[in-house]
Design goal:
The chain is α+β, with helices and mostly antiparallel strands. The chain contains three helices and seven strands, in the order αβαββββββα. The relative contact order is 0.15.
Length: 157
Protein backbone atom coordinates (compact mmCIF):
# COMPACT_ATOMS: atom_id res chain seq x y z
CA UNK A 1 0.00 0.00 0.00
CA UNK A 2 1.16 3.47 -0.78
CA UNK A 3 1.44 6.04 2.04
CA UNK A 4 -1.46 8.02 0.58
CA UNK A 5 -3.70 4.94 0.68
CA UNK A 6 -2.63 4.21 4.25
CA UNK A 7 -3.57 7.76 5.32
CA UNK A 8 -6.95 7.50 3.58
CA UNK A 9 -7.60 4.13 5.29
CA UNK A 10 -6.66 5.63 8.68
CA UNK A 11 -8.95 8.64 8.14
CA UNK A 12 -11.78 6.37 7.01
CA UNK A 13 -11.40 4.10 10.07
CA UNK A 14 -11.25 7.13 12.38
CA UNK A 15 -14.45 8.55 10.87
CA UNK A 16 -16.18 5.17 11.16
CA UNK A 17 -15.10 4.92 14.81
CA UNK A 18 -16.35 8.45 15.49
CA UNK A 19 -19.71 7.66 13.88
CA UNK A 20 -20.10 4.50 15.98
CA UNK A 21 -19.17 6.35 19.19
CA UNK A 22 -21.65 9.12 18.38
CA UNK A 23 -24.43 6.60 17.69
CA UNK A 24 -23.78 4.77 20.97
CA UNK A 25 -23.71 8.05 22.93
CA UNK A 26 -26.99 9.25 21.43
CA UNK A 27 -28.57 5.86 22.18
CA UNK A 28 -27.47 6.11 25.83
CA UNK A 29 -28.95 9.62 26.11
CA UNK A 30 -32.24 8.44 24.61
CA UNK A 31 -32.52 5.53 27.06
CA UNK A 32 -31.77 7.75 30.06
CA UNK A 33 -33.85 10.79 29.09
CA UNK A 34 -36.48 11.65 31.69
CA UNK A 35 -39.51 13.71 30.68
CA UNK A 36 -41.27 16.14 33.05
CA UNK A 37 -45.02 15.96 32.46
CA UNK A 38 -47.63 18.32 33.96
CA UNK A 39 -50.22 16.59 36.13
CA UNK A 40 -52.97 18.07 33.95
CA UNK A 41 -51.39 16.41 30.91
CA UNK A 42 -51.14 13.07 32.71
CA UNK A 43 -54.82 13.26 33.69
CA UNK A 44 -55.64 14.08 30.05
CA UNK A 45 -53.72 10.96 28.95
CA UNK A 46 -50.75 12.75 27.41
CA UNK A 47 -47.73 10.94 28.84
CA UNK A 48 -45.15 8.39 27.66
CA UNK A 49 -46.60 4.96 28.39
CA UNK A 50 -43.50 2.89 27.71
CA UNK A 51 -41.07 4.70 30.03
CA UNK A 52 -40.70 6.40 33.38
CA UNK A 53 -41.35 10.13 33.62
CA UNK A 54 -41.41 12.85 36.27
CA UNK A 55 -44.35 14.71 37.73
CA UNK A 56 -44.23 17.55 40.18
CA UNK A 57 -46.57 19.63 42.24
CA UNK A 58 -47.82 20.19 45.74
CA UNK A 59 -48.86 17.40 48.11
CA UNK A 60 -52.60 17.84 48.71
CA UNK A 61 -53.54 18.56 52.34
CA UNK A 62 -55.09 15.60 54.24
CA UNK A 63 -54.28 13.19 51.40
CA UNK A 64 -51.45 11.17 52.94
CA UNK A 65 -52.42 7.58 53.80
CA UNK A 66 -49.86 5.23 55.34
CA UNK A 67 -50.16 1.46 55.52
CA UNK A 68 -49.60 0.23 59.11
CA UNK A 69 -46.33 -1.73 59.59
CA UNK A 70 -45.29 -0.97 56.02
CA UNK A 71 -43.29 1.55 54.03
CA UNK A 72 -46.17 1.96 51.57
CA UNK A 73 -47.71 5.42 51.35
CA UNK A 74 -50.40 6.93 49.14
CA UNK A 75 -51.04 10.62 48.61
CA UNK A 76 -52.29 13.06 45.99
CA UNK A 77 -50.26 15.66 44.11
CA UNK A 78 -51.79 18.75 42.50
CA UNK A 79 -50.67 21.31 39.97
CA UNK A 80 -53.42 23.63 41.36
CA UNK A 81 -55.61 22.53 38.46
CA UNK A 82 -55.78 18.72 38.59
CA UNK A 83 -54.86 16.07 41.13
CA UNK A 84 -53.17 12.71 40.65
CA UNK A 85 -52.97 9.83 43.16
CA UNK A 86 -49.42 8.67 43.88
CA UNK A 87 -48.28 5.41 45.47
CA UNK A 88 -44.78 4.96 46.85
CA UNK A 89 -43.02 2.24 48.80
CA UNK A 90 -39.86 3.29 50.58
CA UNK A 91 -38.39 5.86 52.93
CA UNK A 92 -39.60 9.38 52.23
CA UNK A 93 -37.34 12.45 52.32
CA UNK A 94 -37.33 14.29 55.67
CA UNK A 95 -38.85 17.41 54.09
CA UNK A 96 -41.84 15.53 52.61
CA UNK A 97 -45.14 16.84 54.01
CA UNK A 98 -48.55 18.14 52.99
CA UNK A 99 -48.61 21.43 51.13
CA UNK A 100 -44.95 21.16 50.09
CA UNK A 101 -43.53 20.78 46.60
CA UNK A 102 -42.42 17.33 45.44
CA UNK A 103 -41.13 15.67 42.30
CA UNK A 104 -41.98 11.99 41.76
CA UNK A 105 -40.27 9.69 39.27
CA UNK A 106 -42.16 6.63 38.05
CA UNK A 107 -45.00 5.63 35.74
CA UNK A 108 -48.78 5.39 35.64
CA UNK A 109 -50.33 1.99 36.35
CA UNK A 110 -53.58 0.52 35.00
CA UNK A 111 -55.66 2.07 37.79
CA UNK A 112 -54.50 5.62 36.85
CA UNK A 113 -52.28 5.83 39.95
CA UNK A 114 -48.75 7.14 39.58
CA UNK A 115 -46.41 4.50 41.03
CA UNK A 116 -43.29 6.34 42.11
CA UNK A 117 -39.84 4.77 42.21
CA UNK A 118 -38.35 7.89 43.76
CA UNK A 119 -39.70 10.94 45.62
CA UNK A 120 -37.78 14.21 45.81
CA UNK A 121 -38.82 17.01 48.16
CA UNK A 122 -37.72 20.63 47.99
CA UNK A 123 -34.70 21.21 50.17
CA UNK A 124 -35.60 24.50 51.86
CA UNK A 125 -38.42 26.96 52.29
CA UNK A 126 -37.42 29.15 49.34
CA UNK A 127 -36.59 26.59 46.64
CA UNK A 128 -38.81 24.61 44.31
CA UNK A 129 -37.72 22.61 41.27
CA UNK A 130 -37.78 25.01 38.28
CA UNK A 131 -40.12 22.74 36.29
CA UNK A 132 -42.61 22.60 39.17
CA UNK A 133 -42.49 26.35 39.83
CA UNK A 134 -43.02 27.11 36.13
CA UNK A 135 -45.89 24.61 35.85
CA UNK A 136 -47.64 25.93 38.97
CA UNK A 137 -47.34 29.52 37.72
CA UNK A 138 -48.72 28.54 34.30
CA UNK A 139 -51.69 26.71 35.82
CA UNK A 140 -52.40 29.55 38.27
CA UNK A 141 -52.79 31.90 35.29
CA UNK A 142 -54.96 29.37 33.45
CA UNK A 143 -57.08 28.80 36.55
CA UNK A 144 -57.82 32.52 36.84
CA UNK A 145 -58.79 32.68 33.14
CA UNK A 146 -61.08 29.63 33.48
CA UNK A 147 -62.72 31.08 36.57
CA UNK A 148 -63.46 34.25 34.64
CA UNK A 149 -65.05 32.19 31.85
CA UNK A 150 -66.84 29.88 34.29
CA UNK A 151 -65.35 26.67 32.85
CA UNK A 152 -64.37 23.50 34.71
CA UNK A 153 -60.90 23.32 36.24
CA UNK A 154 -59.93 19.75 35.44
CA UNK A 155 -61.63 17.39 33.04
CA UNK A 156 -60.21 13.92 33.77
CA UNK A 157 -60.68 11.36 31.05
Amino acid sequence: MKPRQQRMLAVGLALAGLAIATALTLRAFQDNMMFFIDISDVVAGEYPEARNFRIGGLVVDDSIEREPDSLEIRFRVTDTRCELPVSYTGVLPDLFREGQGVVAIGRLDDSETFVADRILAKHDENYMAPEVAEMLAKHAEGKAAMAARGTAECNPT
